[in-house]
Specification:
Blueprint: E1 3-7, H1 12-23, E2 27-32, E3 44-47, H2 53-62, E4 65-68, E5 73-74, E6 77-78, H3 84-94, E7 97-101, H4 127-142, E8 149-153, E9 171-173, H5 189-201, E10 208-213
Length: 214
């Protein structure tokens, strides 16, 4: 049994990861700014945010894995990037693995192709979030911290607007966007969570990003 702390537990990805971890018998600490949620049972709830250094250190000391499932941008301002050094320091100090729910925008459309966010078809509405998440990944990769982290990018279509159904079947890639034969790139919330918790239980991506899609 592993203790998993999730910042952003009331969000789409964080909620699904919490449900999957609980389903497998892990202890889950759920953190949100409200400190409560009616959608989960069996969690230990904490109130707080990334700005609370004492909370971050406390979570890293209690948990084996600290999961960050929050938006990278709010009101057009980066809200995750400034706290990456704190997260790495806390993870390193307490030997706690850091897992980040990332974005699809920084994935390349082909091995030698552009990033998804740099293609003409990428919606302007989501560019700020995608670019901010891409910066988070760059900082993680460039860090000299010994912290063990993993960053998981979903498919291009991922969110409460397209929940999908649990299939327990998906593909894993590195930095290249996965699409089906018709060019669709999609992953349901439950299957994304399965891949994420699989990595928690059996770590195979150390200081690396991987992507999940059907």
């Amino acid at each position: 049994m592993t203790t998993v702390a999730i910042i952003g537990v009331t969000g789409y990805a964080g909620g699904h990861i919490a449900d999957e971890a609980l389903r497998r018998g892990h202890d889950v600490i759920g953190v949100s700014r409200s400190g409560n949620s009616k959608t989960h049972t069996g969690l230990t709830y904490r109130t707080g945010s990334l700005a609370d250094k004492e909370l971050i250190n406390d979570l890293a000391a209690q948990a084996s894995v600290l999961v960050i499932a929050v938006h990278a941008v709010e009101a057009d301002q980066p809200v995750l990037l400034p706290y990456v050094p704190l997260l790495l320091d806390a993870s390193s100090e307490h030997d706690c693995r850091l897992g980040i729910v990332g974005g699809a925008g920084s994935l390349r459309v082909s091995p030698d192709g552009p990033r998804l966010v740099d293609t003409p078809e990428f919606p302007d509405l989501y560019k700020a979030e995608a670019l901010a998440h891409a910066e988070v990944l760059e900082v993680l990769r460039g860090s000299s911290s010994p912290a063990d982290w993993f960053y998981v990018s979903p498919a291009a279509v991922f969110g409460s607007y397209a929940p999908g159904e649990r299939t327990e079947k998906f593909r894993i890639s590195g930095d290249v966007l996965l699409s089906d034969a018709e060019g669709n790139s999609f992953i349901g919330g439950e299957d994304f969570a399965i891949a994420f918790v699989d990595e928690i239980e059996k770590p195979t991506h150390h200081r690396a990003r991987f992507a999940v899609a059907y």
